[in-house]
# Entry
Amino acid sequence: MKLFLDSAKEDEISYALDAFDIDGITTNPRHVQSAGKPFMTVIRNIAKLVEGTEKTVSVEVNPHFVTYQDMLTEAEKLAAISPNFVIKLQCIEPAFKVARTLAQKNIRTNITLVFSAAQALMAMKSGAFFVSPFIGWKETNGEEVRSFIDDVVAIRDNYGFTTEIIVAAVRNGRQIVDSAVSGADIVTAGLSVYQEAFDHPYTHDGIRRFSNFWDQSLYE
Ligand code: E4P
# Structure
């Protein structure tokens, strides 16, 4: 089970690489905007942080590009910047052909903004390296998401697709565990989601209690 950091902030990425040895990074236009620097600067700086490793950085094509040719041209330009880059394509019809073309050129893609198992199926058939079903947005919309993850994993397994499933827009530890139990390959989440998930108030309560006992005992 791989854990990706969903962020474009260099300080957060460096921290998560050091603290959790995160396995990869996903960015999106919202993260780039909040990083506060131009898109190209942000992605080049992130590329330097993982240079020489196998860790992937998912970099999203300009969302205004909605034709095959525009998406393809931009994807090739981004892929040339770093061997770590996986090109994020929004899940619209031309993206499937772009993914097929890029796969033939050994350029990896991440089909993103996936909200149905049918979309995920087509992404896998198109040779996407990653597919990103978004669960947080669906849950906010009142939709049940556990069966969504299960369906995407079952489709991958039934047909032996090699596409890795990144459960995206993950908001808490329960969703991380649900994704792991369902057999998803990866989750991507923000730094605070991981920090909260890997912590528990009882741990701190226990530290307080045990410190108290410790203080009442002799060391030697
Ligand atoms: C995943 O690749 C996306 O960047 C991300 O999970 C989008 O969702 P969010 O920005 O609402 O968390």
Summary: Residues 6, 26, 28, 30, 112, 132, 134, 136, 168-169, 188 surround erythose-4-phosphate (CB under 6 Å).
